[in-house]
Design brief:
The protein is of the alpha+beta class. Helix content is 40%, strand content 18%. Among the domains are: 196 residues, Lambda Exonuclease, Chain A, CATH 3.90.320; 48 residues.
Amino acid sequence: MLAELIPKVAAMESEESHKFYPRPSSAGPDRCIRQMVYHGLEFPREPFPGRMLLVFNDSSWHEELTADWIRKTIFRLHSEQMEIDCRHPMRKGHIDGIITDLLKVDRLWEHKAINHFTFQRFWGGELPLDNLSQCAVYSDGIQRKINLDCKEIILLIKNKNTAQYMEYRCKYDLETDTLTIIDKSHSDGSHEKVNHILLRVVESAVEKFNMVLDYISRKTLPKRPYEIDDWHCEYCGWGKTCWKGYEKEFNELKTDAMLPEEVETTIRYYRELGAQKKDIEDEYKTMSDKVKNIMKDAGAREGRAGSYLCRLRLVKVNRLDNDLIPEKIKNEAMRQTQYERLFISEVKEVA
């Protein structure tokens, strides 16, 4: 009863889409500029499902919970949701807060709550570029207008599924517009030096937004930065609008283009990789079968070979039997998707 009702209430009470303007939260390189142009041109957006709105709402409460835990530490959390003047054409932003340690050193604090799989990607080495860019934009505004000495940043990311945390310690240099990711740490005690430098962070955001505003003023669209089957498009409110009629657009592409000569080297390497991939996969399967047969000859499903432990597991997989599904139901459940596939063949020279 309530399980079905709550998402519906969330969908009904969701606020109307705000007007587009360059926001610090959209400053990062991963945010699609075509999406922002659609927003700025006031194209209708697909409504968010109620469950997605609940997820967004959960994130703000995770921030509140984390802030409450910080208040119980030796750090002083203050200036929460303080308004920051950002570089034009960006408007004002609101920071999550500033933390001050016992030596009275101030650091910008930004909090993000994300799902488990994204959390794993970031801890595995992928950088949260959009979040880091937002931090740089805020730090730029703080140093220019409020406190020149507040150079360090703590980007704290919470795993909403497991309540684990990871933290990026960064430093933004106002004069050179560079953000240095010094290190990252995990709530399990893991610590890793990063020492990665992002150049022209805020200036790149300014250029990006100026480009978006130029497209909006000319009422034209930029090229799509993602492929048709990319997950970014799947979750975009303008995804269907963006790819509508793409089949016609695709069929109108040239079929007799002369590509740059240097592409030939790339294509040759691509084909070589494809051949190697097949050989490696075949050999991998052969080696797997060989080890399995040795274990079965020994009457074992677990065994040791030097420093290696081998285990055989019987894995059960559930699959739909199409022969048992009525044709009417299969047709109703069918959803067509599109993707682009590359085919390469060698030119046959005429004697």
